[in-house]
Amino acid sequence: MITMSVPQSNSNEMVEQCENCAAKTPHSVSVELVTESNKKENAAFSREPYRLTECTQCGAETRQRMNNA
Ligand SMILES: [Zn+2]
Question: What InterPro entries does the record tag this protein with (predicted)?
Fold first, then answer.
């Protein structure tokens, strides 16, 4: 694996572990509101923020629920 020093100009890139690459790779990070429809009650209030990371090496997307309450 080639390691280059890349200027941190892209604010939404973070180096994180990618299971697909089995390595730490730069990921583009964004936040997505997902409506969780498996609850019958409070459906209108069940939009949860998810952290969406996409590996810039292989394109694998990982969704992680931010609110674990
Ligand atoms: Zn990857």
Answer: DUF7835
